[in-house]
Amino acid sequence: MRRLLEIELQKLWLNKTSKVLIFISFILPFTVIVLSSIKINFFGFFTLELGELGIFNFPVIWHITTFFAAQFKFFFAIVVVSMIGNEFSNKTIKQNLIDGLSKKEFILSKFYTIVFFSFLATLLLALISLFIGLYYSSYDEFNIIIKETDYLLAYFFKLVGFFSFCLFLAMLVKRSAFALAFLFIDFILEWILLGIIAWKSDLAFASKIQNFFPLKSMYNLIEQPFQRIAMTKFPNKEDLSYDFVLHWYELLIVIIWTILFIIFSYRLLKRRDL
Amino acid sequence: MEPILNINNLTKKFGYLTAVSDLSFTIYKGNIYGILGPNGSGKSTTLGIVLNVINKTSGDFSWFGDQTTTHDALKKVGAIIENPNFYPYMSAYDNLKLVCKIKGVQFDKIDEKLKIVGLENRKNSAFKNYSLGMKQRLAIASALLNDPEILILDEPTNGLDPQGIHQIRHLIKDIASQGTTILLASHLLDEVEKVCTHVVVLNKGKNLYSGRVDEMIASHGFFELKTANQKELVDLLEDDTSFGNVSVSDGLIKVLLKTPMEANTFNSQMFERGIILSHLVKRKQSLEEQFLQLTKKE
Question: Which residues of B touch A273 (CB under 8 A)?
């Protein structure tokens, strides 16, 4: 496992473009989170301090930071599709196999890299959130701090699932740009299917079905936190309440998609003549 | 003799096209093999199959007497097919480092192999800045990293200038002289003739001949003749059963021998019959002529 990870990391690390993209995908979300936690004084007119809103309180901070950090996953998605696309365009995938890497090892080396970076991102996010939370939060009991840390688990699996989807698309079309296009097409397709099913039956049923689609199921892991923030401000408005908790079956759907994407990628490579 | 690669009834179909058809041959340790065939005869496909990048349709092959899986066997093989494929943004050294990681070889081999191919001074330049000849040499260095039992080269001199071709051939001969088995695919007959001891001739995916280069056709050679009374000589040769096909071009008569005959015997025979030869040379057929003859039969 270490050998395969080392192989892939060398390929990524010596490539300037992917190095820059990896840096961006790590630094940008965390900078945004850290900056937003700083008290900003607008030339003495007013001070903006998001911390005052209570969004950096435990346990809601886990929800907020994972949700916003997840929006930046697209940068690393570019790295994932290009690390496959480049292997095809440079024909290095062929040379790798000839040099004695098996097809299974090839896919695994990519997958381990995805898991490695997702884990690193989760770890960094956990640390940053913890520090900001400790600084702002009015509660600092251990039990409250670790409450809802399952959002970190959700964040990790959301990243792994999403990047595995990118990996599969890149293996399918062999070109980075096309893979990203397909990702976008699937995004639209999931909504069109929702529309069609809703038209044939009803919306409630269609939404249930949609929860099994890849992108939607990944989204479900961390629902948007805006309503929840609003709820903390207006606790009486019960019609705002919605299901933002992480359920085990939501996690299971994403894990199953991840496994399927990796198996499909391997099957594709196995059957293909290079 | 120890078999290195054994191919049995291998077939590969791309849709309706049969690229390799029922091919069988065996590669033994210590020889230099040439796979010869015109473009599109299935050379690269055959190599692709045994190197695990193309899926076979039927038949089978085994490496090193079937003791290992293909993927493990490839760690004992060094191969380059078609163009040298490396990561353009990495230096030569880093590219070889990656190959070391894949093959499970120590990094100290890198400098040793770069020296063999004469690239030690350019090892830190990015691969994309290399000339084609240098790329090809780097590919050979890469294939040698694991001190392979067999080196497989597919068209190693394709697209190179004469100096480059000379360098690569020299390199191949050096490597062969150290006892490494070599399998060389080429459509350049001259190359195979100069380098190889054994040859497999393919055409349209079929095996036309496999064996030693010098035994490729049991031929007794041919005479090139010139004389003043050409017609008389041609008639005489055509009537004689010990001679084969007679052809005339630019006043030069070319006659194939069916039985062994020395030039001086022939000369005295002709003299006795009153034909004075002004030109007499006995020649062996080149591999090219033999090859064309073989592929024409199909």
Answer: 14, 48, 53-55
Nearest-neighbour CA in chain B from A14: distance (Å): 6
- Residue B143's nearest CA partner among A104, A100, A274 is A100
User: Min CA distance, A93 vs chain B (Å)?
Assistant: 9
Residue A100 in contact with partner chain B when CB distance is under 8 A: yes
A201 — phi, psi (to 5°)?
-120, -110
Locate all alpha helices (DSSP H) within chain A, ordered by sequence: 2-13, 16-37, 60-70, 73-89, 92-98, 103-136, 142-146, 150-173, 176-200, 203-210, 214-221, 226-233, 248-271
Return the SS3 of A56. Answer: coil
pLDDT tens digits, residue range A78-117? Answer: 999 999 999 999 999 999 999 989 999 999 999 999 999 9
Q: Which of A223, A221, A242, A245 is nearest to A231 (CA)?
A: A242
* Contact yes or no for A225/A244 (Cβ under 8 A): yes
CA distances to A125, A149, A272 from A155, in Å: 9, 10, 33
Q: Does domain B222-296 fall into CATH 1.10.150?
A: no
Q: What is the domain partition of chain A in residue ranges?
A: 2-271
Superfamily for B3-215?
A: P-loop containing nucleotide triphosphate hydrolases (3.40.50.300)
With CB atoms and an 8 Å threshold, state whether A274 touches B48.
yes
Q: Which chain B residues are Cβ-neighbours of A271 within 8 angstroms? A: 55
Q: Per the CB < 8 Å rule, is B52 touching A95?
A: no
- In this prediction, residue A238 has a pLDDT band, given cuts at 50, 70 and 90, of low
Residue A32's pLDDT band (boundaries 50, 70, 90)? confident
Residue with tokens 């070391």: B100
